[in-house]
Amino acid sequence: MKRLAEHRAIVTGGASGIGAAIARRFVAEGARVAVMDRDKEAMALIDDRVPGVDLALVADVTEPAAVDEAFEELDRRWGGLDVAVNNAGISVPGAFADLPLADWERVLRVNLTGVFLVAQRAVRRMRGRGGVVINIASVSGMVGMPNYSAYNVSKAGVIELTRTLALELAPEIRVNAICPGYVLTPMQEAEYSPAALAECARKVPLGRLGRPAEIAALAAYLASDEAEFATGQTFVIDGGETAGGLASA
Ligand code: NDP
């Protein structure tokens, strides 16, 4: 069953990791897919990474003019939009006491203001016709985690923006957030040593890191009409990582 036939979907940060997996899954489900990403080298290879991708939009989600230009291209090519996946994100760890203001602002700008800019332009095009917004937040926006204050705050902001937009835009537009736990992607490989990744996997009740395709499967469900009663929610997919909470566990 091609659940996303007739759907036009944009995926930000779709040149790598979770975003590329979502873009691939959406193509497989029959959607017309546009990838927006700032990574020019990765975008040069987008046809290999996301075979069947319809539109490659090189743009930084933090730059309003670039985002506007990308959406204008989308208007020319598609004349509308049905699904927007706000996935582009960065992680900059650092002990709070020494965190440079520039790092704090950079993370909030990409992870939160980037979602504001793209979601706003997307919903303007969905008004009057309906649509779906999916924000990739994180379990880090739901529980505390040392040394990730900017990241955690940005993702908590994405969750709250999701709830607020869902109420503001219902019943026309559905807005949901996905909160992945550890997923093995270039972002994680850049940040953690293989030993640290193995340690993370050991602590996850299901005993491993997530796969980008598993997050993509949830995104495909939320984008589809099968999820037409779901809005304003955060869908956690973390191998059980946040199920507990006891210090003794
Ligand atoms: P990756 O770094 O593998 O992919 C992210 C992509 O987004 C990259 O191509 C990156 O380009 C691009 N990007 C970053 N900033 C911008 C920007 N300003 N404008 C446009 N594109 C941008 O990350 P993941 O696939 O791991 O993460 C995807 C999302 O999932 C993020 O929001 C992340 O926070 C979230 N997430 C990831 C988890 C994980 O364990 N991997 C867990 C929970 C949430 P560039 O290479 O130039 O930075």
Automatic annotation (TrEMBL):
InterPro entries: NAD(P)-bd_dom_sf, Sc_DH/Rdtase_CS, SDR_fam. Keywords: Oxidoreductase. It comes from the Bacteria. GO terms for molecular function: oxidoreductase activity, acting on the CH-OH group of donors, NAD or NADP as acceptor. Transmembrane segments: none annotated. NCBIfam families: PRK07231.1, PRK12826.1-2. Belongs to the short-chain dehydrogenases/reductases (SDR) family. This is Oxidoreductase. It comes from [Actinomadura] parvosata subsp. kistnae.
